Amino acid sequence: MTYWVYERPLIRELRTEGNKGLSKEDLENALKIHPRTILNPVKIRRGIEEAKKAYEKKGFLDADITYRTEESATGEVTLTFTVNENDKIRIKEMVFEGNKAFSSDQLRSIMATRKQNLLSRFIGTGVLNRDALKTDAERLTAFYYDHGYINVRIDEPRVERKQDGLYVTMRIDEGEQFKIGEVAFSGDVPGGEEEAKQSVALEKGQTFKASILRDDVFRLTGYFSDQGYAFVNVEPETDVHPEDKTVDITYRVDKGPEVYIDRIEVAGNTKTRDKVIRRELKMQEQSLFTATGLQYSRERVQRLGFFEDVNVATQRGVRNDLLNVLVDVKEAQTGAFSIGAGFSSSTSIIASARVQENNLMGRGQQVSVGASIGTQYRNTSLSFTDPYFMDTPLTLGADLFDWKFAFEDFDRAGLGGSLRTFYPLTALGYYSLWGFPLEDVRLGLQYQWERSKISNFDPITP
């Protein structure tokens, strides 16, 4: 017995013809066949099937793909795929059956799948994507569930092909609408149940909404975290009463230990001093942990404008009731230099320059020097601001200026300065007014002194 073995040729080059709906790159990615590999008919057939699926997602349900090989003198082959895309088959109509609570138009607006319209040729609507259609069914289920229809059932979408296009049918069994029954808490509730209910939006008699239930869990978690229970766990439990069409909700609370901040570490500040960052934090070492304080601290550090990025993270301390806070920053450019020139009828030609530093020597202080000089005008200024004078909440600033303007009949010049001071109301113990927060409200006082002089009168000036 003799076995004759023939080696499969090597693919020297891969070509595609007729592909317009798919780019050459997308088609080759679907085929998963590449040059310098061995010609394998099984892989080719598998690749053609995957390419057809890719065409189906584009609406080319009748796409046909064939291949041919051309052998060279060296025994290698050129593999060519020829695509006959045919016309796109679009969705002609989308029909809903069994929907009573919501109109078909309302349900269509929720879905990503669209039927064809006058703009389909330009914007690509009306194409059938079975994966997207399956997701649409899940989206409709969530929509009904969020309006109290907790027993809704949506059958698998039925797609029929007719002479003028595709018809998609969605069969819906809505069931009954359920409302909220009793709202209660279980476990050890920090602050008491009555106070906790103030953070809950769902109330007895309202339509059951899963999205609001989810939001209530987030709000309760934040509320308990602000009382120092960083590891609190809130689990909603539902008890359905079909006879009354109500859903009782019980929030099961496992508060965990009361947590304090052990250490606050600052990293990444290669220029800015630690105290500039720490004084913006609304938390201190050995103080009770609050989730709101953690978030607000990050916002305050970000608002300094000294950093490209600010991350505030927590990690467990040496005990279960301790947390370490890590403030990681990335320094940004805080200095600026500008120069310019211009012309106007009042000042003629003028040139200006300005240098500004918002984080002087990493202390958080601001200083700027500016000058404008023209044929009829001159102005110089110097400004300095310390937002935490002597490491207190007091903001103190000083300005110096010197200017001169040459009018047609006389010259006028001025020299002076000013002092500015601001103090936050929160440092005085005022945190809100008629329900409005006063975190960013400051009381201010400014005094300005200037000495002006008029000279070079024209002799004929009246």
Structural write-up:
- It is a single chain.
- With 462 residues, this protein is of the alpha+beta class.
- The protein folds into five domains: 11-84, membrane protein fhac (Ubiquitin-like (UB roll)); 91-173, membrane protein fhac (Ubiquitin-like (UB roll)), CATH 3.10.20.310; 179-254, membrane protein fhac (Ubiquitin-like (UB roll)), CATH 3.10.20.310; 260-331, Ubiquitin-like (UB roll) (Roll); 335-455, Porin, CATH 2.40.160.50.
- Helix content is 20%, strand content 41%.
- The protein is built from nine helices and 22 strands.
- The strands form six sheets. A seven-stranded antiparallel sheet has the order 14-15-16-17-18-19-22, with no helix packed on it. Strands 4, 5, 6 and 7 form a four-stranded mixed sheet that branches. Strands 1-3-2 form a three-stranded mixed sheet, with helices on one face.
- The chain is extended and about 115 Å long.
- The model has no long low-confidence stretch (mean pLDDT 90).
What is the topological layout?
Elements: E1 11-17, H1 24-31, H2 41-57, E2 64-71, E3 77-84, E4 91-97, H3 104-110, H4 120-123, H5 130-145, E5 153-154, E6 158-162, E7 165-173, E8 179-187, H6 193-197, H7 210-225, E9 233-241, E10 246-254, E11 260-267, H8 274-278, H9 291-303, E12 307-316, E13 322-331, E14 335-344, E15 348-360, E16 365-374, E17 377-386, E18 395-406, E19 411-424, E20 432-433, E21 436-437, E22 442-455
Parallel strand pairs: 1-3, 4-7, 8-10, 11-13
Antiparallel strand pairs: 2-3, 5-7, 6-7, 9-10, 12-13, 14-15, 15-16, 16-17, 17-18, 18-19, 19-22, 20-21
